[in-house]
Write a structure and sequence with these properties.
- There is one protein chain.
- It contains one helix and 26 strands.
- By secondary structure, it is mostly beta strands.
- The protein has one domain: Neuraminidase, CATH 2.120.10.30.
- A four-stranded antiparallel beta sheet has the order 1-26-25-24, with no helix packed on it.
- The N terminus is likely disordered.
């Protein structure tokens, strides 16, 4: 009975979301979606040209590695309850460590010899909230989000009036940190940079309180300057998930289309509804237009990244699994170079 209900519910959801969306130029065939491995609560996938996919297992406090044969290994434990992962231009793994109050609440880099370098662990003498996701530009500058979900009792970074800040930061080198976005977003989560580096996209996702009580479930675009600063007045709304589950992690292809993990198949009341936007990947044009919705048949969908020899495989973390999906578009990465 539950399976029948799920199938009917999902079909109805997909029809609702896809209404008015053209399929003539679909970027991916949803039928090609397949599970690559089951672990626990997965997050932050990162592709390496060796054929390995790295991703966070937040529940078990470790970073996992799926090798080219499909076998899953433990890469690092403990991981500081890592979330977002990313490789820099030298092939070193960057990690947002911030999955709980007991975590390190920092951004690290695993050197090629396996040692850990702390890139940032606070701002102006105060600990970060919970570094969540990150991106990097061609200059090697790292941008990351610092939200706080659940217990907010020990948030240290505040404005002049004492209000806590869930901001976005830029790291110019170990210990060199700048706050580039503050109250322009409610709770930043996923983040990515456009291939031409003119825009910074930030997922704003307050998913632990009813939307009616305030809090965005939106994707914003900000103008990005040559020096890595953000024009805060340039904020543009790209997409709004209303009272449904909002945007989490995201990826971007070489043509500037954004692939956003969002939505629920079943409501998580009273915090999140499931009235229109179901669990899956929302492919958006750089104008914010919804180009395609790719359903993923599980809650909770968290993040995605491009990989594969031709960079046309989208790896998705959702539920307890790592998934993959073939696309017609090639993803954009600093490493391996997309040029």
């Amino acid at each position: 009975m539950r399976l029948t209900r799920y199938i009917l519910f999902t079909v109805t959801c997909v029809i609702a979301v896809l209404a008015g969306v053209s399929h003539a130029d679909d970027i991916a065939d949803p039928a090609s979606l397949k599970a690559e491995g089951r672990v626990a609560f997965t997050e932050g996938p990162a592709w390496h040209p060796s054929g390995n996919v790295y991703f966070s297992d937040i529940v078990n406090n470790r970073i996992m590695r799926r090798d080219r044969t499909g076998v899953i290994h433990v890469y690092r434990t403990p991981s500081g309850r890592s979330n977002g992962l990313l490789f820099d231009s030298q092939g070193r793994l960057l990690a947002c460590e911030g999955g709980g109050l007991e975590s390190n609440r920092r951004v690290t880099r695993t050197e090629l010899d396996g040692t850990i370098t702390v890139l940032a662990d606070g701002f102006n003498g105060h600990k970060f909230n919970s570094p969540n996701d990150l991106t990097i530009d061609s200059q090697g500058r790292v941008y990351f989000t610092d939200p706080r979900y659940r217990d907010r009792s020990d948030m240290q970074i505040r404005d002049s009036s004492g209000e806590p800040i869930e901001g976005v930061y830029r790291i110019d080198g170990p210990g060199r940190v700048r706050q580039i976005i503050a109250h322009e977003v409610d709770r930043p989560n996923g983040i990515c940079i456009s291939p031409d580096e003119k825009y910074l996209y930030v997922a704003d996702n307050v998913n632990d309180g009813p939307r009616g009580q305030g809090g965005n479930r939106k994707l914003w675009r900000f103008g990005l300057q040559d020096d890595g600063s953000v024009d805060r007045e340039s904020r543009k709304l790209m997409f709004d998930w209303g009272t449904d589950r909002g945007p989490d992690g995201m990826a971007i292809d070489r043509d500037g289309r954004i692939y956003v993990a969002a939505g629920f198949n079943f409501p998580n009341l009273p915090r999140e509804t499931a009235t229109k936007y179901r669990a899956g990947i929302y492919v958006l044009a750089d104008s914010g237009e919804l180009l395609q919705f790719i359903p993923v048949p599980v809650d909770m969908i968290t993040n995605c990244t491009f990989g594969g020899n031709d960079m046309k495989t989208l790896f998705i973390t959702a539920g307890h699994k790592l998934w993959s999906l073939r696309t017609t578009a090639a993803g954009y990465h600093v490493f391996p170079s997309s040029n």
